[in-house]
Amino acid sequence: MKIAMILTSHDQLGNTGRKTGFWLEEFAAPYFVFRDAGVELTLASPKGGQPPIDPKSDLAENQTDAMTRFKKDPVAQKALSQTIKLADVKSDDYDTIFYVGGHGPMWDLADNPVSIALIESFYNSGKPVAAVCHSPGVLRKVTYKGEPLVKGKRVTGFTNGEEEAVQLTHVVPFLVEDELLQLGAVFEKKANWQPFSIVDGRLVTGQNPASSTSAAQALLKLMTGSESESSMDSVQVEQRSYEMPPREGISIAHFLTVADIDRSARFYETVFGGRILSRGDSSGAPAYIQIANTWLLVNVGGGPTPDKPTVTLTVPDPNRISSFMNIRVADIQAC
């Protein structure tokens, strides 16, 4: 597997007179996740050569195991000092691309026509694109089929709250969270500084420096096609095993332990304008109700249990499932 890791060449933090660059943890952690997995890595930046490290990222309070390892690894240090020019990276030569974060990319990658064209080339070729922390901002002008790439997709990135916490809200050229929301993305986040990454189709994003490892691992998992272990949070659909939520297309809500399928189906038909596609049968098949692009599967009993961690359901176009929820009526009633 070949991965191109893209870093910034920008070292000025707006008009503050302070230095910026890439965040060291956001390079070091993914770098070792990939290298330890046997990935062939190429590092690139707009200007080539040694990209600037944000000095704040190397303060004592920000040290991590990956950073410590990097400082003891001459091979990694040499690779970082010899990045190739971004213009020389071609999507045909790699399996996927990973954008390292830090504030720098907001200035020299977010509006960079070479970077924009490169991301579009990867994505249009069916290859995943990954970005962590501020780097989801590089997607702001990337389009797919005439619309923003992030439109309708679940994404994350450095949040407004995190930017406020580092007192740079009025320094950065734009706020990552606001920009992605404006483009029509479904922006999700956790509390400040908590690790959080999202995979939506072929797009992988991480919220902050603490998400660097999980974002890299998620990209590897996506590339290798590995499936999660069976658990209460998995579902099998037409011989395919999915996480909840799975990664592609329509939404599924599976209601368990419904006392009366027909009554429940009529409720969703009357109250929500649902279309009843099937009322189930005596052998225990669930009723299927469609409301817009959401399918409700109303079932009497069944569903994942500790001794039977998967349930087999049949849904239209299983490759387009974007979310899957198991909802136990008893839990709703207990609220």
Q: What's the short story on this structure?
A:
The chain has 335 residues and is an alpha/beta fold. The protein is built from ten helices and 19 strands. It has a seven-stranded mixed beta sheet with strand order 3-2-1-4-5-11-10. Strands 15-16-17-14-19 form a five-stranded mixed beta sheet.
Q: What's the SSE blueprint?
A:
Layout: E1 2-6, H1 24-36, E2 40-45, H2 65-71, H3 74-81, E3 84-85, E4 96-99, H4 105-108, H5 113-124, E5 129-132, E6 143-144, E7 147-148, E8 154-155, H6 160-165, H7 176-182, E9 186-187, E10 197-200, E11 203-206, H8 212-224, E12 234-237, E13 240-243, E14 250-256, H9 261-272, E15 275-278, E16 287-291, E17 294-298, E18 312-313, E19 321-328, H10 329-334
Parallel strand pairs: 1-2, 1-4, 2-3, 4-5, 5-11, 8-9, 12-18, 14-17, 14-19
Antiparallel strand pairs: 6-7, 10-11, 12-13, 15-16, 16-17
Helix pairs in contact: 1-2, 1-8
Structure characterization notes:
The protein is of the alpha/beta class and 335 residues long. It has two domains: 2-224, 3-Layer(aba) Sandwich (Rossmann fold), CATH 3.40.50; 234-334, no CATH class. 26% of the residues lie in helices and 23% in strands. It is built from ten helices and 19 strands. The strands form five sheets. A seven-stranded mixed sheet has the order 3-2-1-4-5-11-10. Strands 15-16-17-14-19 form a five-stranded mixed sheet. The protein is elongated, with a radius of gyration of 22 Å. The relative contact order is 0.11.
